[in-house]
Amino acid sequence: MSSSRFTSTLHQRDARTQLFDGYDVSRSSSPSLGNSSNGTPSGFRAATPNSRGQYSDSVMSGLESQNDHEMEGLTARVRLLKDITVKIGEEVRDSTKLMGNLENGFDSTRVRLKGTYNRMMRMAERSGVGWRVWAGFFCFVMLLFFWVWKF
Length: 151
Prior knowledge:
- The protein is mostly helical.
- It contains three helices and no strands.
- It has helices spanning 14-19, 57-127, 131-150.
- The two termini are 37 Å apart.
């Protein structure tokens, strides 16, 4: 029975650290972080309208390119998060399958042991020797094996 549980690399933090690789606090849109002298976050161009409230084409183009660049970064991070959640889902499914197999194995072992115990008790009753004698004999054999194994 082979399981990917034992060959999993999800315990490594590579995928999570990749989310924040290249993240620059100075490019953050938070006004309290990385502000330049004119009050805008550093790395971004100040966008001020003219007297009629209109923006120039170069400002609009610059804002669009900044927006596209940030969207690409967010898209990559979302894709990475999706991949991580898919891997977590696969790991959960594999673990659930493994637990189900273990439960079935333990259940079949319990049934076998119960049958063996019942057969042993029937044999002890038929032989006329009490169960305590059989238990003592079993302990003696186990001690003999232990003694041979150790010495």
